Amino acid sequence: MIDAWLEFCSQNAPALVIAIPLIAAFATPLFSRISEKVRNIWVVLSLLATFRVTATLLHNVLDNGQVVYTLGASVPSLTAPDGFPFRIILQADAMSAFMAIISVSMALIVCIYSFRFMGKKSGLDKYFALLLVMTAGMIGLVTTGDLFSMFVFLELLSVASAAMIAYYSKGESAEAAFKYMVVSSIGALMILFAAGMLYGQYNLLNIAGLAGVIEFTLIDKMALVLLFSAFALKCGAVPLHMWVSDAYGEAPAPVSAFLVVASQAGLYALFRISFTLFGGLPGIATMGWAMIIFGLLSMFVGVTMAIPQKDIKRLMAYHAVSQTGYMLLGVGVGLAVINDMGSLALFGKSAMEGGIFHVINHAMYKGLLFLTAGAIIYRTGTKNLNEMSGLAHTMPLTTIFFIVGALSIAGLPPFNGFASKLMIYESVFLFNPLFAVIAMVVSILTLASFVKVFHSAFMGPKVSKSAKGGEVPLSMWFVMGILAVLIIFFGIFPDVMLDNLVTPAVDALLNQAGYIGGVI
Amino acid sequence: MIDIQMIAVVVLIALGISAAVLKRNMIKVVMGIGVMGSGVNLFLVSMGYVEGGVAPIFTNTPNLTMVLATPQALTLTSIVISLAVTALMLSFSVMIYSKYGSIDTRKRRLKE
Amino acid sequence: MNEGMSAIVKTMSVLLIMPMTIFGMYVIIHGHLTPGGGFPGGAVMATMMAMLFVAFGAEKSKKFLGKGSLSTIESLGLLAFAAVAFIGIQATFFSNFLANSASYFGMSISYGPNPGYLNSGGVLPLMNLAVGIEVFAAITAIVLVMLTYREEKS
Predict the structure, then answer these.
(1) N or C terminus of chain A: which is more exposed, having fewer CB within 10 Å?
(2) Tell me, what's the ipTM?
């Protein structure tokens, strides 16, 4: 019985990973009419179920290569009945499954943290429903094989995120959400326009199908530019980063931690477009350079904007921009040498591994930092660094977790940020020494900025305002502890993550022919 | 050879973007995004136009070549999404108006 | 806003309830045969509710129709949609298990023009119905919340 059930889950995993959180989200308002406890149990159980199915999907993908699922067909593998993929196809390769597992793990952590953090505020049924919708949007965005579904899931994610950012319904949070929504709906319309451009030429919307027949006309290149800039906007790379600080800064702290993963889903889409859809473009190396320049700008501008901030969450938001730069730099170097097999094998692939490894590390340590910021806000009620002092006296655990997160984001051993940053430094140095130097300088500035935060928030005498209450409740520090342990674990044993998840993901990203062959 | 509707697409998108970027009134920004969405929808629909084709609905249809309905389906989905986006942004405007008493974007900005 | 508009408007809006509801339901039920479907039909019915809110005053209407009940209706519509999609999982998610099955909405129809048979389309009519309920409740809730937001604050 259980075996049959597991078999069923495994066969339908790509559809179930999207369906379970969506259905759970629809049912959450109903359950919360019964009681709060029932709702909390329901949300955690549905996220656990999603996690289980995502793990099954990941396992299948790592064992058998990619998994293809055609919605509405008579059998899941019937992708192109007449040599023409017209149905919505979910296509999960190692990269997609890697992103999906990050999203759902962070969703679980954020959800458990939110129970106590949100306390007894009103409208929490909608909060948890939107959290589940965001999870579904992210997983959908990373598992879909269709340009239009990508647009739909991106809008689902944006709408849910905007509503979450405005959760406190203060003036500032409504402003931040308005800004986020304006920016992301313009970006989404650019994606839709690009999808229309491609559809008009090839009568296809499927990414794999398009990649097989694309001829790289001028219109295709225009579509590439539209898609590239729209997804760069969604991941918050520097010329397009203006929404990040407001949105992350004004959202509730757990939502900020989750928005980090939401921007990384945008990053996934950027990589998918550049490597798979336009991977055969002769001049794709130029886009690699564009990605590198976006990355360098993000790193430098992000960190320099972070240093003068007085609001702890805005400061961390600018650091999120800066860290996104490392991922763009690492993967961009891989894209810049993608047509040069020697360089790719020598340093391109390890730069990409560093970039992709940084994605999961960033989700962990930036998530942890936002959660510690949330713990500080929970106890002191202020976001202003000048008003906090001496928190180490009353909140020792939060202090330890903050130190772990801060040292990890600054790239110090033995934390996971060091492992991925070292890979990026080494490989980027072979590509261009100057870039590696910039990356290291940015790391030092990051450390300086976090030393400032540590000194002003945790050190010094107890201030009466910040001294009320003690450590945060158990469920909150417990999930922070899990993240901290994971950060140290993957810092000491980076190979566990590299061999099992990151290298297959990079191979999948580079294997354009395999992705196309899964459908046609 | 330029199709006439493409001029309308360009005009609509340009108007929409300029309204979203230049206008200070939040309602006008929302309207700008709506106009831009209409431009993109018009583009999608005109991609799916086939001369002499009929809509792919069998009810009382003349017996002619049918068009593939994908662009129309995309347009409908995009209209539904833009409804959600517009409603959400208008709700934010309502919220901001009730807090600050103004929907002028210059009046109050996030600090820094 | 509390007292609504004049007696003429109130009477006319009451008279219009029936035609608007019937038209909305027509659009929903014929969704698989004619242009239309759940979303436009639900929007038509929500327009009817918006008309009532304007005619009778949103604050007064809120006493009869709370946000909670609308949210419940919305969730039920969405769950019905997801359930219909889920039942098809014996083949694949979203597969049309009722089409050509000779059961409900399962009439087999030969290829080509026809006068339109309501008893066809498989799961599409069911999904249209679910979407219609969801859109009706959602747009009504949006209009209601927007009309009453300021009163809520003060």
Answers:
(1) N
(2) 0.93
